[in-house]
Backbone:
C-alpha cells in the first residue's frame, strides 16, 4: 500500500513566540523533522496542511501573518503541496482527498497539531474514508484544556485522544517505532 505523510498545522502560531503556544511543541517538531526527512529520503509523498483565517476580527492564523506561516524547520520543499484549510478538518472544503488520490496514496501517517482538534478531525475523517491511518504520537502536540472549571493537563488531553485513536481509528506509534519498522 502506498503511504503518504500528512503534516498538520505545524505553524509559527504554536511556537512559544506565537499566540497559541503548545506544550511540548519543540519536541514534536524535532520529531516531525525526522519523519519528514525519512519520507523525503524514501519517496513517501508529503502533504502540508496550513490553517488560515481570513475572517474579520480573527486573532489566530491570520492570512498573511507570521503566525500563519509553516515553521521553517518543517517547511515544504520542491513540489510538496500545501493544502490551506479554513476549518478544523483538513478534508473539509479542501482538495486534500483529491491530492492523496492523485498521488496514489492508500494509507496515511499523520503528525502535527493540535492533537485534540485538527489531528483528531483529520484522523477520524481519514478513517471514515477507509484510509488506514497511523498517528505518530510524539510528533504531535496540544495544550492544557479547561472545561467548566476543570483543567486537563496537555499530557492527559493528548493521551486521551491517542487512546481513542487506538481504540478504533488508527495505529498509534512513536517516531522511533515508526522509523525502525
Residues:
Amino acid at each position: 500500500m502506498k503511504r503518504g505523510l500528512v503534516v498538520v498545522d505545524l505553524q509559527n502560531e504554536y511556537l512559544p513566540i506565537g499566540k497559541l503556544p503548545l506544550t511540548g511543541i519543540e519536541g514534536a517538531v524535532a520529531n516531525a523533522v525526522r519523519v519528514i526527512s525519512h519520507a523525503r529520503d524514501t519517496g513517501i509523498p508529503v502533504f502540508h496542511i496550513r490553517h488560515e483565517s481570513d475572517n474579520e476580527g480573527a486573532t489566530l492564523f491570520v492570512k498573511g501573518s507570521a503566525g500563519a506561516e509553516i515553521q521553517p524547520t518543517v517547511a515544504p520543499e520542491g513540489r510538496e503541496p500545501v493544502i490551506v484549510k479554513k476549518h478544523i478538518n483538513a478534508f473539509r472544503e479542501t482538495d486534500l482527498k483529491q491530492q492523496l488520490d492523485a498521488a496514489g496514496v492508500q494509507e496515511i501517517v499523520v503528525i502535527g497539531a493540535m492533537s485534540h482538534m485538527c489531528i483528531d478531525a483529520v484522523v477520524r475523517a481519514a478513517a471514515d474514508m477507509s484510509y488506514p491511518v497511523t498517528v505518530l504520537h510524539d510528533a504531535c502536540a496540544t495544550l492544557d484544556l479547561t472545561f467548566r472549571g476543570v483543567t486537563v493537563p496537555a499530557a492527559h488531553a493528548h493521551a486521551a485522544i491517542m487512546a481513542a485513536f487506538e481504540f478504533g481509528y488508527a495505529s498509534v506509534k512513536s517516531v522511533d517505532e515508526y522509523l525502525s519498522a
